[in-house]
Amino acid sequence: MEKEKYLRQLSPIDEILELPAMKDLILNYPRTVMVNATRTVINELRRTIIATKKEDELRSISLEPDDLVPLIHELVKEVMSPSLRRVINATGVVIHTNLGRSILAPLAVDAILSVASNYSNLEFNLDEGVRGSRHSHVEDLLRSLTGAEAAMIVNNNAGAVLLALSAIAEGKEVIISRGQLVEIGGSFRIPDVMCQSGAILKEVGTTNKTYLEDYQKAIGEETALLLKAHTSNFRVVGFSAEVPLQDLVALGKKHKLPVMEDLGSGVLVDLSKYGLSHEPTVCESVKTGVDVVTFSGDKLLGAPQAGVIIGKEKLIAVMKKHPLARALRVDKLTLAGLEETLRLYLDPAKAIEEIPTLSMILAPLPKLKKKAEKLAKKLKEKVGTKYSIEVIEDVSMVGGGALPLEELPTAIVALSTKNLSASKLESKLRKSDPPILGRVREDKVLLDVRTIQPEEIGEIAGVLATIS
Ligand SMILES: *Cc1c(COP(=O)(O)O)cnc(C)c1O
Question: Is the pTM of this model over 0.90?
């Protein structure tokens, strides 16, 4: 049988590795990676030979060892290139959870780099020469920015809620409105987190309306906490009623019960001053006298992924000592980035300029139009003969569950070509290096310039030129 002969002709791995054409690869890549890639290519070839039915097809398969080198090279390159890598976000969604939420201010990036490549005083008090607390690096900043008595940081806001509920209400009842029992993207569900914390959910009111007396009636011996949760990317509109935080706080005071708010996004500047809808600020929450507030680091705050817990000193102290605090501990890189981002908020005008999440959300339409014109011009220069390129006005979303109904006026570059359908073009852009992620509408690929970084404009044109 001819096949046997072919299979016998396959070179052994050792022989292929010795080929002069492999020398450069062997020098540049780890030996185990080379061996595995070579084995994979040979096995693949063996499978092809076995699966091939026709004699002439069999004869067209090259068994020349040198012809295997490019295949091995491709495979090795794939194995050695990072899986987690930069993408160009042309979706216009600023806080895109799948794309890493917030990108950081340059000062925050510098701080991370310095702490990552050196030893630091993470848990060391340099004044006294004794052990310190990792929370201390941001606690003063958070106190002065929010007016809260104390603060701590954990891995993310889901962790913050879990820790707070466990520390305050394990085995006891937590009262929350039915209208706030929501699921937030990525399977964060208030009832599930509550269950995990050991607290007992006591839901009151209805989906659309909850009144203060609903909470009042539910308070009993077993009550440990009144909870208000931001409904994030979900809104009840029309015939609805929620109890304002300050009324809950007053009720809590009357019954000597702590009140907590899961604020979700946690914004430190009042965005309504800049023409957006009002998103409750952290300061406004603290002013009501609420006992605990939790929010994310990487949503509207524009910092690294983290969960910020602020509130009354006594409660925060209990949380800092809770065993879960160790499990949810935040790392030094996050703290470095968070600290520098928070410091920018000491001057709000600087914050909205230098924190990319805020500057992208607040980018004015004329500026976006200019950016889109620039991108369109670059594209026309490079690929104008192949593509139809036009600048049109559209809307972009904030994302991250913040300001879910807000439509930000934006400018986009719409691309289409006779050679490819819009979905094919989208797929090719997505698989480019760097990947470019846009939106498809009808027969066009839309690139929203709101989330495209200035230095990426030329890059996008370069990538498009390589697509056929
Ligand atoms: C986003 C969000 C969370 C989860 O925060 P992570 O930082 O993603 O863990 C919890 N609660 C609310 C209200 C949210 O909006």
Answer: yes
